[in-house]
Design goal:
Pathway: Cell wall biogenesis; cell wall polysaccharide biosynthesis. This is Glycosyltransferase family 2 protein. GO terms for molecular function: glycosyltransferase activity. There is one protein chain. By secondary structure, the chain is of the alpha/beta class. It folds into two domains: 235 residues, Alpha-Beta Complex (Spore Coat Polysaccharide Biosynthesis Protein SpsA, Chain A), CATH 3.90.550.10; 84 residues. 39% of the residues lie in helices and 20% in strands. Strands 1, 2, 3, 4, 5, 6, 7, 8, 11, 12 and 13 form an eleven-stranded mixed sheet that branches. A two-stranded antiparallel ribbon has the order 9-10. Strand 3, helix 3 and strand 4 form a beta-alpha-beta unit. Helix 7 packs parallel to helix 8. The protein is globular and about 60 Å long.
C-alpha cells in the first residue's frame, strides 16, 4: 500500500498541522475508476461549512482518477492501494490513518449539499449514545420530475437482508424528521471513530456490500443507536461505479449477508438462514434437472449459489473467531437486537 500525503490550502497543510490541530471529522472517499465523477464529489466537500480533514482512498484506478486527484486536489491526503480492495478494503485502510473523533463516509458517485456534514455532526453530538448518523440520500435518476429517495438509512427483512429505507418515495415529503433506523448507509454517513474501532472496524474481506449492515449491527451490539438525519442531504448516482445486475454484486450480496448473520445474529437464526440458502440451492438444482423453469435472476443461478456456499464454508472458522470477539465486547444481546430490528417495520 502506498500512502501519499500532499499539502494544500483547503485542507491541512501537513501531517504536523493535522496532529497539532486535528479536525473533528475526517471524511473518507473510497474511489475506483471515477475520473468523470470524483471532482463533483470533492468539490461538494470543499463547500461544506464544517472544517474537516479529507482522505481519499484510490483503489488502484486505471482510468486517470489519480491524475485528477494530483492535478486538481494537491492538498488532499490520498492513499493509493496497489490493488482494488473494494469499499470495505479501502475504508479499512483509511481507518488506520484517522485521528479525528468522527469519520464520515461519502461515495465517490455522490454529491453532498452544503451543511451535510454539520447536520450529521450536530445529531451525533447531541447524545453520546448515538454511534452513527446517516443521510437522506436522493437518487440521481436522470429523469425530470420530483426527486426520489435512495434511502434514509438501512433496515432488515425477516431473513436478515438489508434494504434501503424509503427507496423510491418522494424525497421532499417522505421522512422529514430525525428518527432512529437500524443502520447507516455507507454511501453517506458519520460514525464515531473509536466506537467503530472498538466494535471491530470495517470487515475488509467483505470487499463490497453489507459492510455498512455489519458495522451498524456491531455498533448496536455495543449499545449505540443510529439516527437518520433528513437535513443532511447527498445526491447519489446509484451504482454509477458498480453494476447491481452483475454476478459480482449478487455473489457478494448473498455471501456477505450470510457472513454478517454468522458474525452478529443469534446462532440459531444464522444457522437457519445458511440452511435455508443451501436448501433453496438444492431445490433450484432439482428443478433444473427435471427441466422445470428456474427464475432468471442472477442470484438463482446454481453456480453462483454453490460458490457462495463454498466461500461461506471456507470463511466459517475465521468468522466464528470474529463472532466470539464481537460477543466479548457486546453490551446488548444478539437476541435483543434481532428481535427489535430484524423484520420490523423500518421506523418502528
Amino acid at each position: 500500500m502506498l500512502v501519499r500525503v500532499s499539502s494544500g490550502s483547503r485542507y491541512a497543510d501537513s501531517k504536523e498541522e493535522h496532529k497539532v490541530n486535528p479536525a473533528t471529522v475526517t471524511v473518507v472517499v473510497v474511489t475506483f475508476r471515477a475520473k468523470a465523477m470524483i471532482a463533483d464529489c470533492l468539490d461538494s466537500l470543499a463547500a461544506q461549512d464544517l472544517p474537516h480533514e479529507l482522505l481519499v482512498v484510490d483503489n488502484a484506478s486505471s482510468d486517470g482518477t489519480a491524475d485528477v486527484l494530483r492535478s486538481k486536489y494537491p492538498g488532499v491526503r490520498v492513499i493509493t492501494l496497489a490493488e482494488n480492495r473494494g469499499f470495505a478494503g479501502g475504508l479499512s485502510a483509511a481507518l488506520a490513518h484517522i485521528e479525528s473523533p468522527y469519520v464520515a463516509l461519502l461515495n465517490d458517485d455522490a454529491v453532498a449539499e452544503p451543511g451535510w456534514l454539520s447536520q450529521l455532526l450536530a445529531v451525533c453530538e447531541s447524545d453520546e449514545r448515538i454511534g452513527a448518523a446517516t443521510s437522506k440520500m436522493i437518487l440521481e435518476t436522470g429523469f425530470p420530475g420530483e426527486e426520489v429517495l435512495n434511502n434514509i438509512g438501512v433496515a432488515l427483512t425477516r431473513h436478515g437482508y438489508g434494504f434501503d429505507v424509503g427507496l423510491g418515495l418522494p424525497a421532499s415529503s417522505a421522512y422529514t424528521e430525525v428518527t432512529e433506523v437500524f443502520g447507516f448507509s455507507g454511501g453517506a454517513a458519520l460514525i464515531r471513530t473509536e466506537s467503530l474501532r472498538a466494535a471491530g472496524g470495517c470487515p475488509e474481506h467483505f470487499f463490497l456490500y453489507y459492510e455498512d449492515v455489519d458495522m451498524s449491527w456491531r455498533l448496536r451490539l455495543s449499545g449505540f443507536a443510529v439516527m437518520s438525519v433528513p437535513g443532511a442531504i447527498a445526491h447519489h448516482r446509484h451504482s454509477a461505479t458498480s453494476d447491481q445486475n452483475s454476478e459480482i454484486f449478487h455473489r457478494h450480496n448473498e455471501r456477505n449477508r450470510l457472513l454478517t448473520l454468522i458474525r452478529c445474529a443469534p446462532a440459531g437464526f444464522a444457522a437457519s438462514e445458511v440452511l435455508r440458502f443451501g436448501l433453496t440451492t438444492i431445490s433450484l438444482a432439482v428443478t433444473k434437472v427435471i427441466r422445470r423453469p428456474v427464475p432468471p435472476a442472477l442470484n438463482f443461478r446454481i453456480r453462483l449459489r454453490v460458490g457462495v456456499l463454498a466461500e461461506v464454508a471456507r470463511l466459517l472458522p475465521s468468522e466464528c473467531v470474529a463472532r466470539r470477539r464481537i460477543g466479548r465486547t457486546a453490551v446488548v444481546s444478539r437476541r435483543s437486537v434481532t428481535s427489535a430490528w430484524v423484520g420490523a417495520k423500518p421506523l418502528d
